[in-house]
Amino acid sequence: MSSHPKSHMLLERNQTCMEGAEGRVGHVYADLGERFSLKGRRHTNQYAQLYFQRLMNVSPGLSELARQKWKTVKKSTILDVQIGQDCWVLGTLYKHMKKKPCVLDEYNIDFDPDQEKPEKYTAEDDYLIMEDEGARMKLIGDALPKSLLVTGVVIAVRGKEVEGGDFQVSDVCFRTPQLHQTVPEVMEDKYVALLSGLDVGDAKDPLKTLLLVQYLIGSLGSEYDQVLSSKITRVVVAGNAMAYVEPPSLKLGEKQQKSRLTEPLKELEVYLSQLAATVPLDIMPGMQDPANLSLPQQPLHACMCGEAGKLDMLNRVHNPHNFSIDGAEFLGTSGQNIDDMYRFSSETDRLKLLEMSLTWGHMVPTAPDTLPCFPFSDKDPFIIQSCPHVYFAGNQPQYSQKLVQCSEGTSTRLITVPSFAQTGTVVLVNTRTLKCHPITFDVSAIGA
C-alpha cells in the first residue's frame, strides 16, 4: 500500500491512494464503515432502545416528505387519532404472523426439532400494526402493501380511524434517503469485482475457484480478458468465503478433529494469498464464516487468514460494508438481510426486496425481530442516510441488477451477487459508468 506518484488528489480521512500492481490501474479508496464497529461496546442494552433510535432518526426526514405529499392533512399521534378524521400518522411497523417461529416453541410438547423449516412464514391472515412512542393500532386497507412490508419499517400512513379502532389506510409514504454526490468524472474504465459464496472447504471440485483466482490476477484468458482483468481495481468477497463445517464427531481422534476444522482455513489462505498479492481485496464475513453471528458482523480475525493476513492489500472489513472507489460509493451486505426479508414477505423477487430496502431507507429492517443484531442504544447504523451509487447483496440464488432512480435525477445500481460455488459467477461493476456485467466460469464440460 503506497501513495500514487501521479496523484494530486487531496485525500479525506480514511482514504487511501492505491497504486495498482504491475500492469494494474490504481484508485482512491475510502472505507466508510466506521459506524459498524463494535469496539468498546457491550451486549447489555435492551432492544427497545434500537427501535426508539430508528424511529427518532427516521422521523424528521420522513415527516418532511409526508408534509410535502399531504400538504392539507393534519399530522396526528396514534393516541390522538379520531374516528372519521382524515390525518396521517408516523410509526414503526410490526407484522403479526402466526407462522413466525418463536424462541419458546422448543418448550412446546409437540415441538419437532427435526422438522424442515418452510421457505416462507407468510399467510393470508397476516396483518400490520403501527406503533409510535405512545400507543399502537392495527392498519387495514388495500392501499397498504401488506404482503411486501416487514416488521421494523418506519412508515407514514394517511387515513381514518374506523369503528372498532382500526386505521383505514388510504395512502403511504416511505423515507427516501438523501441525495448522494455525483461520481467524479473519470476518464478511464475501472472495475470492482463483486463475488460471494466461495464455500472453500466444501470438498467439491475446486477448479472453478482456481480459474477465478487465475482470471482475477491476470493469468487466464485471451489478451482481451487480461486487459479487462488489469482494470479490476478491487475485489470484494461478500461473505461465505468458507463452507459451513459440521462439528467433527467425538469418535474421531484429536488430530482428525483438528484437521476437519483447519483444512478449509488453509485452503482459503492459499486463495487469499494469491489474490491479495496482486489486487486489493476486501473480505466480508458471512453467515457461514467464523465470525460473530449478529449484525454488524465484525472483520474476520487475522488468524483466520493465516499468512495472507499480513499482506497490505488484504482488507478485513465489516458486514455490512460501506466504501468508495474514485468517488463512487458502494454499500452492501453478505445477504442475510435479503434472505430474512424474503422469509417474512410474500415477495419472491429478491432484487425487488433490495429495492424496497433502499426505498425504506434501512438495510436490515427485520433486525432485531427475526435477524440477530447488536443492541445499539445511541444510534441505528443500518439506516441508509444517503443513496449509494451501488447497493448490493451477496449469496443470492442468481445474478440480477437494476438501475433505480432516486429523487432529482440521481440513480443507484442494485445488484444481487450470486453464490460463486453455486453459479460460478462474479460481477464486474464499472466505477465510471456504474454499469455491470457477470462473468461465469463453467467447468461442467471439462473432462466430459
From TrEMBL:
Q: What is its main location?
A: nucleus
Q: Which Gene3D superfamilies match?
A: 3.60.21.50
UniProt-listed Pfam families: DNA_pol_D_N (PF18018), DNA_pol_E_B (PF04042)
Annotated signal peptide: none
Q: Which residues form the DNA polymerase delta subunit OB-fold domain?
A: 46-172
What protein family is recorded?
Belongs to the DNA polymerase delta/II small subunit family.
Q: What is this protein called?
A: DNA polymerase delta subunit 2
